Amino acid sequence: NKKKICKYDEEKIKELLSNEKIIRNKLKINASIRNARIFKNIQKEYGSFNNYLITFTNNKTLYEIGKVTNDLSDLISKDLIRRGMKFVGSTIIYSYLQAIGVIYSHDKDCFMYKKNIDF
After folding, report:
1. Potential cystine with 69: which of 21, 83, 90, 112 (Cβ 3.0-4.6 Å)?
2. What is the DSSP letter of 103?
3. Where does residue 87 fall: left (phi above 0), alpha (psi -120 to 50 degrees), or beta otherwise?
4. Is residue 5 a contact partner of residue 33, using CB atoms and an 8 Å limit?
5. Is 96 exposed, middle or buried (0-12, 13-18, 19+ CB in 10 A)?
6. pTM above threshold 0.85
């Protein structure tokens, strides 16, 4: 929950650094907290994170295969970094865009490919 993460303080960070069930990387823990705060600010500025993404995508789905980055993921990554986020490189953003359906990467021979999607 981003609201909960936004409130993490030094005591919580120390607790997380001693938790053997997670990756105990202080840079990544701090980035997660900072990114949650920036994410919340983006939601406040645009009404939702989806509305923010639409400013880049025009609410369209891209079909492409065999890539790990593209101009769209580069652009969103640069903007998030400009806003202060960490660990949001173009490859991570490309994967995120695939996960939420903005980039559709199922080959036509894939059982997951859907013929009725409007690209």
Report:
1. 90
2. E
3. left
4. yes
5. middle
6. yes
Q: What string of DSSP letters covers 33-92?
A: HHHHHHHHHHHHHHSSHHHHHHHHHTT--EE--S-S--HHHHHHHHHHHHTT--S--HHH
CA distances from 21 to 6, 18, 34, 79, 115 (A): 21, 9, 21, 32, 41
Encoded tokens for 43? 């939601």
**77 CA to centre of own chain:** 9
CA distance 2 to 47: 15
Do 110 and 91 contact (CB within 8 A), yes or no?
A: no
79 vs 97: CA distance, rounded Å: 15
Taking only the tens place, the pLDDT of each residue in 64-108 is 999 999 999 999 999 999 999 999 999 999 999 999 999 999 888
